[in-house]
Amino acid sequence: MSKTLKPASPEPAIRVVMMPRDTNAEGTIFGGVILSLIDQAAYVEAMRQAHHRYVTIAMREVEFHQPVFVGDVLSLYANAARVGRSSLTIHVRVAARRRLDPEQTVNVTAAEVTFVAVDEHGKPCPVFT
Question: How far apart are CA 11 and CA 2, in angstroms?
């Protein structure tokens, strides 16, 4: 495998419509639902970089700047930020296209997710060999 990171894709790693089952008591989407999507988008990018089994070890600096509503379309853009021997850090940006105003897109949050590549025994292994 190559030891250089692939350039960021202009396409979202994930695009999803937010549904009523994902709402909290205030009528907005649960932050935990968005955190789960961030983890999934980061995994998609990690697998694009190097095919492995990965485990999430950290998610940093998640601050929500805008609420997300039922019917909004979330796009999660992911790009590899750093690679270590057995770790890979992915930056994920979350944008919402508003259901009630499809011309409006707002940045919801961003996060860094760090994975460790593991072998079939769950032991860390090199991301690139």
Answer: 22
